[in-house]
């Protein structure tokens, strides 16, 4: 059977595609932009009708398609979210559950992003994987498009794989191919991908971005997160040359560096000449830039986020943020007010990988305060778990300067971090540091 005939033989309608999904089964979803809208709506309709119950759904990063379908509060119980990275949709479900007699509706699965493929392979048996892919080429290959991460591995480990083919999903190079023979069922849809528009950078973002840019040499290899601050860093790098990109997340800010010629990947040791990533989130322009572009490649997260892989490039610059940092340099990047707020993600992977790189620098950057200056992000003690240990923290940047914590005593660390805190809390932090015998 040729590829076209094989495609037609597995092409089905939405009702038939989800008819095989059973109560009390385990389903994995593609991450973020690869969550398949038509399949999710069809499955939500079955749950709404009471046809299925107790379905465990495993995923990272719920974006618009998932939020509007399976993550409706009315479906909780029939759909049991097992989330590996909490976001606004899960926080809203938790709030509704608390108001509804403290009902438990969301189940968080602690994890390390780089280990997530192994987590699925060895510890979370998946009955069915649902994912959106780019259209098939003449050789019978789809691509995983915006999302390689754990998606490509779980797609092959699941007992059944159902794909939603969407012409708006970019065709991406690298280790992103999926052959039609590997697929059990195919549906087709035509939905624009969700677009993320971070809030504009403010003066503090630009001040911090400028300080970070001074730490970046020409020829460095970048990892950035998403948001106003990382975009401000990318803007501040406009005058640099020969930068490389090896990043967990590809963002519009990084794409601007590629398009402008600032990032040409010419000095990378591995994947030379290529910008590599494991998932992408951004706007329509970025998705169009990704499509059929051989200068960009995606790879599974166990490759991209492996600290050893990261360290093989020289001068890796990793820029991440945190919710709070204590006076010894330990970071809580996932808890707020005693509750899970996000997850550890790949922060520690890149903190360790960047510092292990020859000439590399791991940077934790953040505004010194939150809540309109009411809450200091530099604290005496963390209010949540340690995401990045104090022994791994390298460079810290706030609007008040830069501190290199490597080689400092606990007293010197506390002194340096108090200088990076908002002036109105420095006296209080100093007193607390004395109480903790740091000063």
From TrEMBL:
Transmembrane segments: none
Domain of life: Bacteria
Keyword Transferase: yes
InterPro entries in UniProt: AcetylCoA_hyd_C, AcetylCoA_hyd_C_sf, ActCoA_hydro, ActCoA_hydro_N, NagB/RpiA_transferase-like
Protein name: 4-hydroxybutyrate CoA-transferase
Keywords: Transferase
Annotated source species: Paraburkholderia acidicola
Acetyl-CoA hydrolase/transferase C-terminal domain span: 282-433
Signal peptide: none
Keyword Disulfide bond part of the UniProt annotation: no
Record-annotated Acetyl-CoA hydrolase/transferase N-terminal domain positions: 102-190
Membership in a protein family: Belongs to the acetyl-CoA hydrolase/transferase family.
């Amino acid at each position: 059977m040729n590829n076209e005939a094989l495609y037609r033989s597995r092409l089905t309608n939405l009702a038939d595609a989800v008819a095989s999904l059973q109560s009390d089964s385990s389903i994995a979803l593609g991450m973020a932009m690869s969550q398949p809208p038509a399949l999710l709506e069809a499955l939500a309709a079955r749950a709404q009708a009471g046809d299925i119950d107790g379905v465990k759904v495993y995923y990272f990063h719920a974006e618009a398609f998932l939020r509007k379908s399976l993550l409706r509060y009315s479906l909780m119980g029939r759909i049991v979210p097992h989330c590996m990275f909490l976001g606004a949709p899960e926080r809203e479900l938790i709030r509704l559950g608390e108001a509804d007699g403290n009902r438990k509706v969301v189940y968080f699965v602690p994890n390390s992003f780089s280990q997530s493929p192994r987590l699925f392979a060895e510890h979370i048996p998946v009955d069915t994987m649902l994912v959106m892919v780019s259209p098939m080429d003449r050789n019978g290959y789809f691509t995983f498009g915006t999302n390689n991460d754990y998606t490509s591995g779980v797609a092959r480990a699941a007992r059944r794989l159902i794909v939603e083919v969407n012409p708006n999903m970019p065709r991406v190079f690298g280790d992103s191919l999926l052959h039609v023979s590997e697929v059990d069922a195919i549906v087709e849809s035509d939905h624009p991908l969700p677009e993320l528009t971070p809030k504009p950078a403010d003066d503090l973002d630009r001040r911090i971005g400028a300080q970070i840019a001074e730490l970046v040499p020409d020829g460095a290899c970048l990892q950035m997160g998403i948001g106003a601050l990382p975009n401000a860093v990318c803007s501040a790098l406009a005058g640099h040359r020969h930068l490389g990109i090896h990043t967990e997340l590809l963002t519009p800010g990084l794409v601007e560096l590629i398009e402008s010629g600032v990032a040409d990947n010419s000095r990378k040791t591995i994947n030379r000449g290529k910008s590599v990533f494991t998932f992408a989130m951004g706007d329509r322009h970025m998705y169009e830039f990704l499509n059929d572009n051989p200068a960009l490649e995606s790879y599974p997260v166990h490759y991209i986020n492996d600290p050893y892989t990261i360290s093989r490039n020289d001068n890796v610059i990793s820029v991440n943020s945190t919710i709070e940092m204590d006076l010894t340099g330990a970071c809580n990047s996932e808890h707020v007010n005693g509750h899970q707020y996000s997850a550890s993600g790949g922060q520690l992977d890149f903190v360790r990988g960047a510092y292990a790189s020859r000439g590399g620098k791991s940077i934790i950057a953040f505004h010194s305060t939150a809540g309109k200056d009411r809450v200091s992000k530099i604290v005496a003690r963390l209010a949540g778990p340690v995401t990045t240990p104090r022994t791994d923290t390298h460079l810290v940047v706030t609007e008040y300067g830069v501190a290199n914590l490597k080689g400092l005593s606990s007293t010197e660390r506390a002194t340096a971090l108090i200088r990076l805190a908002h002036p109105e809390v420095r006296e209080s932090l100093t007193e607390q540091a004395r109480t903790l015998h740091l000063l």
